From TrEMBL:
Protein name: TRAP transporter large permease protein
Subunit description: The complex comprises the extracytoplasmic solute receptor protein and the two transmembrane proteins.
Subcellular location: Cell inner membrane
Gene Ontology cellular component annotations, sorted alphabetically: plasma membrane
Keyword Cell inner membrane on entry: yes
Top-level taxon: Bacteria
Residue ranges of domain TRAP C4-dicarboxylate transport system permease DctM subunit in the record: 7-417
NCBIfam families: dctM
Function, as annotated: Part of the tripartite ATP-independent periplasmic (TRAP) transport system.
Originating species: Roseicitreum antarcticum
């Protein structure tokens, strides 16, 4: 069954069938050919896959991101980032990365991060003489942080599919998210030296009065991640309820404090959030059927046997799994890969003796790297489109950043406390 399942899916993918339909139809082929699985399974699994209270967090966090863009919260976050790191060499590149870290704490979406931050930072970097490919690479790579720094829609999905606590994953991802940001800033610095990029002439000096002005304007936006994490850790609400609180907070800030909402902007924000949620839910529904067939075919046992033939060392086996994920995300959307393989891989990691929160964070970060690698790097496409350059040019520029992302993933893999220390303090 496994061979037919993957073959039909890949053929449909090569033919250009949209990812959600390729997954669903690819799963339908072995069901029809084998004849011993009722077709009702498709319908029941698709609806059952999205009929979940935890998944209700996704549309709320997506809406939080679109509302944040509608009330120009991105500009204010970028201003705060500029005050923090704008005086460094290649300051705008560092501002781009720090802004992604701060914006990720509000939206939880890498795609929203790439679109919102990129549309503002790439033109600003280009106007200051930064190479277009470098600007696009920094934007695409840094937007990965949007789905690592909590809240994270990818971790909500992983937690739902595997039964791992979403709250623990949120807290556990804080240190890895910061590590990714620092690693990208280091690469951006050395790339700036190689390209001859100096200090930004327009960087403003940091003064105490300037700090208070920035804090007054952008500080309230930082209340959102504090409320989300504090509320979940304190047991005041679930991740789903945290999404509702985040939406209400943004609506209050945009309407009363910033006074920047209009009916047109609100309508556009809600429509965009609806389209994005529909796309994610369609992929999730179809991938649930795909994952169920993998479980029926005992894919996890097959994978464990294959890994055991290569090595009996758990760390090496985990490296092979990461390599597999990096390869798959070259050709398949990262969200789809996560949904299809989360449950089987969680069973594999449990057999290998890995902590579920630790292994879950490693898997999510590994899948997110696929967002910046061609030929199906969604984040890379967005950044290249904003910079108005070819994906090939952006791909060459982003290679050092991809290597940095892989290096951080491996560090998290081999040092589990980086992902498990904070959850142990917050929840145990």
């Amino acid at each position: 069954m496994i061979g037919i399942l993957f073959s039909s899916f890949l053929i449909l993918l090569v033919l250009g069938v949209p990812i959600a339909f390729a997954i669903g139809l690819g799963a339908l082929v072995p069901i029809i050919l084998q004849g011993n699985i009722p077709l009702s399974l498709v319908v029941s699994r698709m609806f059952g896959g999205i009929d979940s209270f935890p998944l209700m967090a996704i549309p709320f966090f997506v809406l939080t991101g679109t509302l944040a863009g509608a009330c120009k919260l991105t500009d204010r976050i970028a201003a705060l980032a500029a005050f923090m790191v704008g005086n460094l060499r290649a300051g705008l590149a560092h501002v781009n990365i720090v802004a992604s870290m701060l914006f990720g704490g509000v939206t939880g979406s890498a795609v929203a991060d790439a679109a919102a931050t990129g549309s503002m930072m790439i033109p600003a970097m280009r106007s200051q003489g930064y190479p277009a490919a470098y600007s696009a690479a920094v934007t695409a790579a840094s937007s990965v942080i949007g789905s690592i720094i909590p809240p994270s829609t990818m971790m909500i999905i992983y937690g739902f599919l595997t039964g791992v606590s979403t709250g623990r994953m949120f807290v556990g991802a804080i240190i890895p998210g910061i590590m990714v940001g620092l690693a990208l800033m280091l690469v951006a610095h050395f790339q700036a030296i190689r390209l001859g990029i100096g200090y930004d002439a327009n960087a403003k000096p940091r003064t105490l009065s300037g700090f208070w002005l920035i804090l007054k304007d952008s500080g309230p936006a930082m209340v959102v991640p504090v409320i989300i994490i504090g509320g979940i850790v304190g047991g005041f609400f679930t991740p789903t309820e945290a999404g509702v609180v985040a939406v209400v907070t943004i609506l209050v800030l945009g309407s009363i404090y910033y006074r920047s909402f209009t009916w047109a902007r609100l309508r556009a924000a809600f429509m965009t959030a609806g389209y994005t949620t529909a796309m994610v839910m369609m992929i999730l529904a179809a991938s649930t059927v795909f994952a169920n067939l993998l479980t029926r075919a005992r894919f996890q046992s097959t994978l464990i046997d294959m890994l055991s033939t290569v090595s009996s060392v758990p760390e090496i086996q985990m490296l092979l799994v990461i390599a597999l994920l990096l390869f798959l995300t070259l050709f398949i959307d990262a969200t789809a890969v996560l949904i299809m393989f989360a449950a089987p891989l969680a069973a594999v990691f449990s057999t290998l003796g890995y902590d579920p929160v630790h292994s879950g964070i490693v898997v999510v970060v590994a899948c997110l790297i696929g967002g910046v690698t061609p030929p199906v790097g969604t984040l890379l496409f967005i950044a290249a489109g904003i910079a108005r350059i070819s994906v090939g040019a952006a791909s060459r520029a982003i290679l050092p950043f991809v290597l940095a992302l892989i290096a951080v993933t491996l560090i998290i893999l081999f040092i589990p406390p980086l992902a498990t220390w904070l959850p142990s303090i917050a929840f145990d």
